[in-house]
Write a structure and sequence with these properties.
Blueprint: H1 14-28, H2 37-52, E1 58-63, E2 79-80, E3 87-96, H3 98-102, E4 109-116, E5 128-134, H4 148-159, E6 167-171, H5 177-186, E7 189-193, H6 197-203, E8 213-219, H7 220-233, E9 236-241, H8 246-254, H9 265-268, E10 275-280, E11 291-293, E12 296-305, E13 310-319, H10 320-326
Parallel strand pairs: 1-3, 6-7, 6-8
Antiparallel strand pairs: 1-2, 3-4, 4-10, 5-8, 5-9, 10-12, 11-12, 12-13
């Protein structure tokens, strides 16, 4: 007689979270190129909230996107899920690259991450942070407080190449004028993007992307989401909070935030079991966007879990009934 006790495998929330990002992408993808940023955000948020509330959990939104640009959002502190165990921290960006979607450009994604309760960094009043991110082959070679040239030298050494072979991805913003000038002096390749630095961070760990490192100041929500993804993929991200003005700086200091602290991976997400899902909204190097056809649509997603290190690509076909349930624009 077999007396061995078998326990059920741990639950993989990532496989449930992908339904959330798929729904947000399906709903917002209808707005591609229509230049309706708030309407596309609203469609993504409502679809995401609808699906989050079907998951067996008590999820608390720690990172809710939208505050910095007054967009529709899942708000910080909002509780989602069915109200059952387990308690979970949630980070969302219903559309990473709202402007990309509005203008019909590449690399707009829907993203969501989850980890054990109390393990995600809460950025409080800070909506921006300085970041540097790399994939697993350059892990432990970066220092956000070091000059850009020093970081590139260390990354090139770790990857066994020359600085000239590296590609740096950075948001095209006036605040990065000096950083870009320094990078150009190193003769590294530079790729400027208008939006979407979650995708940029993930691409550093995606071999086919041709991106080696992300640098520069972007959103704190995107920083935490990127940390969850890179933890699953074996990469690394570091950050430092970047107050926009003296009021934000003063408020953060009063709340106990150390503006000089370097935020390591463990500071941004301390759990060893975190989950991440992303679904393409518009076509990009990382993921294909939503494609619609007569009786439904097709999506392309990434699904990750840090505990196992598993990264899945998921291609799904959705029936028209699902589109009717979640999409804000239904073609006649």
């Amino acid at each position: 007689m077999n007396n061995i006790k078998h326990s059920n495998p741990d639950r993989n929330f990532a496989l449930e979270l992908v339904r959330v990002t798929e729904s947000a992408a399906l709903a917002s993808g209808r707005f591609m190129g229509r230049n309706e940023k708030n309407n596309s955000d609203l469609a993504a948020v409502e679809a995401m909230r609808l699906m989050l509330n079907t998951i067996e959990m008590t999820g608390t939104v720690i990172i809710g996107e939208g505050e910095k640009d007054d967009a529709p959002m899942l708000f910080n502190g909002e509780v989602v899920g069915t109200g059952s165990m387990p308690p979970i921290d949630i980070a969302v960006d219903p559309i990473d690259g709202t402007s990309l979607l509005a203008l019909g450009r590449a690399n707009a994604l829907s993203t969501v991450a989850a980890s054990e309760s109390g393990t995600m960094f809460n950025p409080g009043p800070f909506v921006y942070m300085n970041k540097i991110a790399v994939g697993p082959d350059a892990k432990h070679s970066i220092d956000i407080e070091a000059p850009p040239k020093t970081n590139l030298q260390n990354i090139a050494r770790a990857k066994g190449c020359n600085i000239e072979d590296l590609t740096v991805i950075i948001l095209d913003r006036p605040r990065h004028k000096e950083l870009i000038a320094e990078l150009r002096k190193t003769r590294a390749r530079i790729r400027l993007i208008t939006d979407g630095d979650v995708a940029g961070a993930i691409m550093t760990a995606w071999p086919e992307s041709g991106v080696d490192v992300l640098m520069g100041i972007g959103g704190t929500p995107e920083g935490v989401l990127s940390a969850c993804a890179l933890k699953c993929m074996g990469g690394e991200i570091q950050g430092k909070l970047w107050p926009r003005n003296e009021d934000e700086k003063s408020l953060g200091s009063k709340m106990g935030y150390d503006l000089n602290a370097v935020l390591q991976m463990e500071d941004l997400v301390s759990s060893d079991d975190c989950f991440f899902a992303a679904t393409g909204i518009t076509d990009g190097e990382l993921l294909k966007g939503v494609s619609y056809f007569g009786d439904g649509a097709k999506t392309h997603s990434l699904v990750m879990r840090s505990k196992s290190g598993t990264v899945r690509e998921v291609v799904s076909k959705h029936r028209v009934e699902k589109l009717i349930r979640i999409s804000q624009i239904i073609d006649n």
